[in-house]
Amino acid sequence: MPHRILTDVKLPDFQDRPKKEGDILRTAEDLFMQFGYNRVTVEEICREAKVSKVTFYKYFPNKFAVLEDYMGARLKLGMETFDKIRDAEASLQDKMQAMVAMKESAVSRFTPVFMHSLMSADADIVSLMSRWTEMSMQAMRQFFVDGQNSGEIHPDYSVDFLLHVWTILGTDARSEAMLNMYGDDMVKLSRDFMNFLFYGTAGPPQED
Q1: Could you give the CA distance from residue 27 to residue 83 in angstroms, rounded to a whole number?
Q2: Cα separation of 69 and 48, whole Å?
Q3: Burial class, 27, CB count within 10 angstroms (exposed 0-12 / middle 13-18 / buried 19+)
């Protein structure tokens, strides 16, 4: 269930793109989720999207550019949702719970096979994920600063320390070992990750 601050985490629909370009992106998303990024070819995307390779290359120089565009669109929508949570007239605890719900909603869209394929040592994918992480880090830094300014995060905590913990936990949460530990239940993994970061071993407060 979405948190009351949120309606839901949107998915990019690419309706603002030329029809063929949008068809390519939507088809690639479906194939990536079914088979993983590495096992999908440009030829398969073209066949399923019912476009020629000439049309494909009109919009994208290669398969990675499709992934980069898709992930960039998801990141943009995710950051808009994050800003909505951060700017809401709500307590820090409410915002934390909304962020847990946002994370669960977002990862529920990603299949285990797709997530495993993003753990590739491919330099382009590593760079893409690093850029994603950097933007998340900047947003979280402001969230922690806001929490300290409101008195809801203890002022003695170093923001750099909190970000370091966020980074270490986030990196480990994306590891093959962690996915295997959770049996590819990424929603449960995401919930535990966010709750531990925000509430520690005591866990989130119980609802009345």
Answers
A1: 29
A2: 18
A3: buried
pTM, entire model: 0.77
Tens-place pLDDT, residues 164-200: 888 888 778 777 788 788 887 877 887 888 788 777 7
- Greatest extent of the chain over all pairs of C-alpha atoms, in Å: 59
CA distances from 1 to 108, 182, 184, 191, 206 (A): 12, 21, 20, 13, 16
Task: Give the Cα separation of 64 and 66 in Å (integer).
Answer: 5
Closest by CA position to 5, among listed 77, 91, 98 = 98
C-alpha angle with apex 55: 50 to 58, nearest 5 degrees?
150
Residue reference for tokens 């299949």? 111
pLDDT band at 4 (very low <50, low <70, confident <90, very high): low
